[in-house]
Amino acid sequence: MIEVSGLTKTYGKKRGIDRLNFTIQDGEIVGFLGPNGAGKSTTMNIITGYLSANSGAARISGIDVLEDPVAAKRNIGYLPEQPPLYLDMTVEEYLNFIFDLKGVKELKRKEHLAEVCELVGLKDHYKRLIRNLSKGYKQRVGLAQALVGNPDVLILDEPTVGLDPKQIIEIRNVIKNLGRNRTIILSTHILQEVSAICERVLVINNGQIVADDKPDNLSAMITGDRKLIVRVAGPRDNVRKILRSVEGVQFADVTVQSEKGSYDFLVEAKPNVDIRKPMFTALAKAGYPILQLKSMDLSLEDIFIKLTEEKKTVRQPQNKQPKKQRPEESAAPAEEAAESFAPIDVNLGGDADFEEKEGDN
């Protein structure tokens, strides 16, 4: 389980994240969404131990990441946007290296690595040089290193970026399978990916959580209503009269004549009322068949834009006078990032030092 409480991180006078609070239960796959600069990467880097927070706490399976980083990180598998790979190693050499680096002692090496490769579909590529693998298979190797040690929590940052459609589907299926017995945070800009994989969505904007719900519930949360487009074969006025008489319907009117003898109607239900069955029954009784029925719910893209745009409007200052700075908003010490703990599955293929740039979230 992941628990984040009162988490705040500042970069000078700018707040990367502002008193974040959320909990992710065991076995959940949660999409973590937000525009660039919203605070996604800052949050994940604190959870994984790359950065320290100014205030608040992040706990993995009850262990505070800052108070006991080594124990917490044993429960975390992290796949950054650029997988930490050594291209001159074979998959076998690399995963054995990660096994040693993580200090895994409770698992049998050969059996465990074989199981990990089976999970991510690398069984037939175990002896190959990583540099000779396609981008999709390099991504699988990145997933494999995150799985070494059987962590309870996986944190995946843009796991399908740059992949072709076939590779994206393959990686999505791998993540779904991994989520059967693990907790997963998936950060992505591909909103279809969230709909396809995630059971729950966290939307962050300007360093604060602006939505937390199942993908299917977000549209109703924003609009507060349910709208349907119904295509019915029958006289326009008669059909409209019947639709308006259905219990739970608060609005019904024709939008267009779709074809000869049939019309499209916009039908709006009262909040929390499902009108589909009584509407079908009333029209069938009158002998007017439904030719098409589709929802007018907002797409996830529309929801994302609406949430982030509305939040920006709310948070705009009302006057130009600078507000009094709170103690935790003071400039963070320059050496803070350097003193933060690097996770066990460090970025083996990149620079030794991690640099968090302001706004790079």
Question: What's the SSE blueprint?
Answer:
Layout: E1 2-11, E2 14-24, E3 29-33, H1 40-47, E4 55-60, E5 63-64, H2 69-73, E6 76-79, H3 91-101, H4 109-120, H5 135-147, E7 153-157, H6 165-178, E8 183-187, H7 191-197, E9 200-205, E10 208-213, H8 215-223, E11 226-233, H9 236-245, E12 249-259, E13 262-269, H10 276-286, E14 290-295, H11 300-315, H12 336-339
Parallel strand pairs: 3-8, 3-9, 6-7, 7-8
Antiparallel strand pairs: 1-2, 1-4, 4-5, 9-10, 11-13, 11-14, 12-13
Helix pairs in contact: 4-5, 5-6, 8-11
In words, what does this structure look like?
This protein is of the alpha/beta class and 361 residues long. The chain has two domains: 2-213 and 331-339, Rossmann fold (3-Layer(aba) Sandwich); 225-295, Alpha-Beta Plaits (2-Layer Sandwich), CATH 3.30.70.100. Helices cover 33% and strands 26% of the residues. The chain has helices at residues 40-47, 69-73, 91-101, 109-120, 135-147, 165-178, 191-197, 215-223, 236-245, 276-286, 300-315, 336-339; strands at residues 2-11, 14-24, 29-33, 55-60, 63-64, 76-79, 153-157, 183-187, 200-205, 208-213, 226-233, 249-259, 262-269, 290-295. The strands form three sheets. The chain has a six-stranded mixed β-sheet, with helices on both faces. A four-stranded antiparallel β-sheet has the order 2-1-4-5. A hairpin with a 2-residue loop joins strand 1 (2-11) and strand 2. The protein is elongated, with a radius of gyration of 25 Å. Mean pLDDT is 81; it is low at 311-361.
